[in-house]
Amino acid sequence: LLLLLLLLLLLLHLHRHFRHHRLHHLLLHHHLHRHRRLRLHHHHLLLLLHRRHQNHASYLGNLKTN
């Protein structure tokens, strides 16, 4: 149950980040509804994307401070 709540929080967090990728998000959302088995796989992909985004942001932050 806790894991499910964490995933939901993660999705909400990611949704804010990907607002400018609305079309992509809608397609993904539609896809998730059609293929529920692939849902976890997509969570994993989004997590990787999010981590990459965070790394990029921190990298830019480091460039600004230096």
Keywords:
single chain, 66 residues, mainly alpha, 85% helix
Main beta-sheet strand count, sense and barrel state: none
Please count the beta strands (DSSP E, at least 2 residues each): 0
As a percent range, the share of helical residues equals over 70%
Q: Uncertain runs with pLDDT below 50, 5 residues or more?
A: none
- Total of DSSP H or I helical runs spanning 4+ residues: 3
Order of helices and strands: HHH
Rg (CA only):
14 Å
Q: Give the DSSP E fraction (strand runs of 2 or more residues).
A: under 5%
Tally of separate domains: 1
Mean pLDDT: 66
Distance from N terminus to C terminus (CA atoms, Å) equals 43 Å
The SS-based structural class is: mainly alpha
Q: Characterize the overall form.
A: elongated
Compact summary:
The chain is an all-alpha fold. The protein has one domain (2-65).
If you had to describe this structure to a student in words, what would you say it looks like?
Residues 1-17 form the signal peptide. Keywords: Signal. This is Secreted protein. With 66 residues, this protein is mainly alpha-helical. It has one domain (2-65). The chain has helices at 2-17, 22-34, 39-65. Helix 1 (2-17) packs across helix 3 (39-65). It starts with a helix and ends with a helix.
